[in-house]
Amino acid sequence: MKDIIRLSIILGFVCSVSAFSLSFVYQHTKPIIEQNREKELRESLSNVLPETKIDYNPITEGELFDVLKANVALIALYKGSKDGKTVYAASVSVGGYQGAIRLLIGFDPAVPEVLGVKVLEQAETPGLGSRIEEEDFLNKLKGRLRPQEKYDTITGATISSSAVIGGIVRTMKAVLKARRKG
């Protein structure tokens, strides 16, 4: 009985020290993690909206925001100015083979045209589904929206690449819908 009490006290002490250590590390690394996420977001926005003056504060209202929110799994919408035109970047989530894929899609709603695409997060199969992040694949998805066009998927990663293509097409169709309303 004394052994059980002694082991319980030791276990409680070890758990308390571990909990305190984790809490301490979390509190001290949280600002660094947030700073790195913000830096990564800014770099990603610059990649999908090249040569653009970007407002890094997300848009939370407006007709385009409402239409996108109603038609795609919109996470955030950002606005930019390029050559006197207003351009946007939409962060959307699509369902992939292994889970959610978070995309950042830069577009010009006046054309409508995809200016750039970046995969922000994905948990797809390494070496297969993870190929959705490759520049060769993403560059093929830039340009004017052609809803009837068949886009090539990645062999061995059909579900993942189809999810990315579908997310872009749904986003751009929502942009077209917003243009018709406005």
Structural class: alpha+beta
Shape descriptor reads elongated
Radius of gyration: 22 Å
Task: Indicate the multimeric state.
Answer: single chain
> Percentage of helical residues?
40-55%
The strand count comes to 6
Give the percentage of residues in beta strands. 25-35%
The total count of helices amounts to: 4
Kindly report how far apart the N and C termini lie. 77 Å
User: Major sheet: order of its strands?
Assistant: 1-2-3-4-5-6
Outline the biggest β-sheet: 6 strands, antiparallel
Mean pLDDT, all residues: 86
Written overview of the protein:
The protein has 182 residues and is of the alpha+beta class. 47% of the residues lie in helices and 26% in strands. It is built from 4 helices and 6 strands. A 6-stranded antiparallel sheet has the order 1-2-3-4-5-6, sandwiched between helices. A hairpin with a 4-residue loop joins strand 3 and strand 4 (100-108). Helix 2 runs antiparallel to helix 4. The protein starts with a helix and ends with a helix. The relative contact order is 0.13.
Observed structural traits:
six-stranded antiparallel beta sheet; alpha+beta; 182 residues; 4 helices; 6 strands
Question: Can you give me a brief rundown of this structure?
Answer:
With 182 residues, the chain is α+β, with helices and mostly antiparallel strands. The protein is built from 4 helices and 6 strands, in the order αβαββββαβα.
